[in-house]
Amino acid sequence: MASFSLFFFFLFTTLLLSFSSANARLTLDFYNDTCPQFSQIIRDTVTSKQIASPTTAAATLRLFLHDCLLPNGCDASILLSSTAFSKAERDADINLSLPGDAFDLVVRAKTALELSCPNTVSCSDILSAATRDLLTMLGGPFFPVFLGRRDGRTSLASAVSSHLPTPSMPISQITQLFAKRGFTVEEFVALSGAHTVGFSHCSEFVTNLSNNTSSSYNPRYAQGLQKACADYKTNPTLSVFNDIMTPNKFDNAYFQNLPKGLGVLKSDHGLYGDPSTRPFVETFAKDQNRFFQVFARAMHKLSLLNVQTGRKGEIRRRCDQIN
């Protein structure tokens, strides 16, 4: 039943996009004629990169979220480098910890696509398709990625801070951030389930282990985290898996961990502690199919936020700089 209703959601979206104006149309087969190798090149690139660097999937998912959640939407502005005249999104404080593997993946895919079909595929389409393929590689749900985005021409670090959630934010504030972008509370909780893969740096949570919020942690788990992060001040790269049970598999174990006090970040504990989000945590912990259904729907919605198409934006020759 879940897959049946999800099918009709995607069918409705397809029809909606089909009736869009000619200069704002995204399609599933956008590159069939202009770059028929697109899908295969993306698959080959993400496969080789994920095998070489198993943290690539989680890194790319985070990069995708940090790009699309901003008001300018999924325009690959997160990939642009700062210039002497402007500090870019990627250099905002919250984005300094974005893993390099994700940026490297996009560069590899862009290079291969430029050799195969020059000046044809946008960096924003690459990031969207690669994120979906990497999620499915880890066992996550499949969702259609509509193509035809153009890349943005601006990227400002000053536009980042008030639009992206931080680990220390209260759940009510994070919920409001997602609500402003059109997401329900259930969809927000599902997207938080992305923490079922990847890791968090010790600096993002270690202070929570030594103050009153430590009561949210399983005591033995808190001791383990303190031990793992003992040298974080001298080694800021120290990190721990967000999901200690199945860190390399996209599943619902993250939600099963939260009632046991096995969350890493303050926001993780907040999901179970807040009465508005706890019911969805409990549902997803019991029903992985429901989690996958809502997550796929939310990712599909996220990938379509404020996309630039047609004559808007550009197809960058290099993903880190405008043409």
TrEMBL record:
Enzyme class, UniProt record, top EC level: oxidoreductase
Similarity section: Belongs to the peroxidase family. Classical plant (class III) peroxidase subfamily.
Cofactor remark: Binds 2 calcium ions per subunit.
Lineage: Eukaryota, Viridiplantae, Streptophyta, Embryophyta, Tracheophyta
One family name in Pfam for this protein: peroxidase
Reaction(s) catalysed by this chain's protein: 2 a phenolic donor + H2O2 = 2 a phenolic radical donor + 2 H2O
Positions bearing the site annotation: Transition state stabilizer: R62
Catalytic site: H66
Cysteines joined through disulfide linkages: C35-C117, C68-C74, C123-C319, C202-C229
Cofactor names: Ca(2+); heme b
Gene3D superfamilies: 1.10.520.10, Peroxidase, domain 2 (1.10.420.10)
Protein name: Peroxidase
Binding site for substrate: P165
GO molecular function annotation: heme binding; lactoperoxidase activity; metal ion binding
Keyword 4Fe-4S carried by entry: no
Keywords assigned: Calcium, Disulfide bond, Heme, Hydrogen peroxide, Iron, Metal-binding, Oxidoreductase, Peroxidase, Secreted, Signal
Positions with a binding annotation for heme b: H195
